[in-house]
Amino acid sequence: MATTFVWAGKTASGVIKTGEMPAGSKDELISLLKKQGITPTSISEKKAGIKLFGPKKKKITEKDLVIFTRQFSTMFTAGIPIVQGLDILAKQIENRTMGEVIGQIKSDVETGSNLADALKKHKNLFDDLYVNLVAAGEAGGVLDGVLLRLAGYIEKNVKLKKKVKGAMIYPIIVMSVAVLVIAIIMIFVIPVFAKIFGDVGAKLPAPTRSIIWMSHFLSGIGGVSLGGGLFASIFLLKRWRKTVTGHKKTDEIMLKLPVFGDLLKKVAVARFTRTLGTLLNSGVPILDGLEICAKSSGNKVVEEIVMGVKGEVASGKTVSEPLSKSPVFPPMVCQMISVGEATGSLDQMLVKIADFYDDEVDNAVTNLTTMLEPMLMVFLGITIGYIVVALYLPIFKMGEAIGQ
Q1: SS in 3 state form for the chain?
Q2: To bridge 365 with a disulfide, which of 58, 167, 316, 333 should be the other Cys (CB 3.0-4.6 Å)?
């Protein structure tokens, strides 16, 4: 982590200059100043002011990463040197946390590191895919094109995540509202009716007795037990998922779900093909590309499949041959990859497959939403209808008794 130093020095012409600069050590700062033609006369660490409540660091989003990548590519294409471009971006970017990271990258590049090594120090922001593509771009002298491809890749990846989240959020919100409404009716409304029916003393129908029993259960220890059990189950499931076995098992279950599993498979195919296509198009070797695809898949089942493919490719086989044996990748995808390998245009074919499966994910999300809407409405209608009928049955019977 770089330390900010306060310095004073003289130029060759005797002009006194002062300023602040982040550096790994005093020796590093002296070297940086001498490169700028300044002989330092005093250097001291900047003392942080005492703050009871320090400024909250803003989270760096994928949108910030896309903006940085695109703007950096534009500056590089325009002929602006890397250090100068990083300096401009560090000062003008809106997210100050991102600005600090860019400033640190600039300092590392100034001291002689290449851009890929400087990015590698911030693994929480720049993953293996990003670093390897930048390294390939630097080696091939096509960094501007690689950065543009990276920005496009991240944008498409963000859109893909939003589609999947959108498919999950809608039913979760509807079900949460439904459960909340039913809980309010059971805990606050039903006891009022139960008191009225108890005062009358008449024998209640079975549906009415069932919802009164349910109301008493939820209002007492039963509701606490259910709530506690639900939170405990979620907590334990999250803890289990953090283990290697739990992560793999939950991923297997999700891929086998009736409708949602099909959507996740299409997302996995789209992500794999776009990632590998982008890597190959930028000059990354296929074995390195497959390893990066496995690590960035986000699914343990897909990761194991891709690592298996890497092993087969290392022994001389094509990508399509071992991929066709997996349950995740459809035969059509394997056939298209095989054609791409035979014609020497695998990178272009992979991007075409990714574009096709982006549309497939769109259709799957639409179909999932269309299918869930009537199911949720039927569930709500039956539940609320049962409660209403159960409450009105005793009233109807009382009315009949009074009429007779």
Answers
A1: CCEEEEEEEEECCCCEEEEEEEECCHHHHHHHHHHCCEEEEEEEECCCCCCCCCCCCCCCCHHHHHHHHHHHHHHHHCCCCHHHHHHHHHHHCCCHHHHHHHHHHHHHHHCCCCHHHHHHCCCCCCCHHHHHHHHHHHHHCCHHHHHHHHHHHHHHHHHHHHHHHHHHHHHHHHHHHHHHHHHHHHHHHHHHHHHHHHHHCCCCCHHHHHHHHHHHHHHCHHHHHHHHHHHHHHHHHHHHHCCHHHHHHHHHHHHHCCCHHHHHHHHHHHHHHHHHHHHHHCCCCHHHHHHHHHHCCCCHHHHHHHHHHHHHHHCCCCCHHHHCCCCCCCHHHHHHHHHHHHHCCHHHHHHHHHHHHHHHHHHHHHHHHHHHHHHHHHHHHHHHHHHHHHHHHHHHHHHHHHHC
A2: 167
Region 62-155: CATH code:
1.20.81.30
- CATH code for residues 165-404: 1.20.81.30
Predicted structure pTM score: 0.67
Q: What is the pLDDT along the chain (404 residues), one digit of tens a residue?
A: 557 777 777 777 777 777 777 777 787 778 777 877 788 877 877 765 544 444 456 788 888 888 888 888 888 788 888 888 888 888 888 888 888 888 888 888 888 888 888 888 888 888 888 888 888 888 777 788 888 888 888 888 888 888 777 777 877 887 888 888 888 888 888 888 888 877 776 678 888 888 888 888 888 787 788 888 888 998 998 888 888 888 889 888 988 888 788 888 888 888 889 888 888 888 888 898 898 888 888 788 888 999 999 999 999 889 988 888 888 898 999 999 999 999 988 888 998 998 898 888 888 888 877 777 788 888 888 888 888 888 888 877 766 655 65
How far, in Å, CA of 115 to CA of 135, rounded? 8
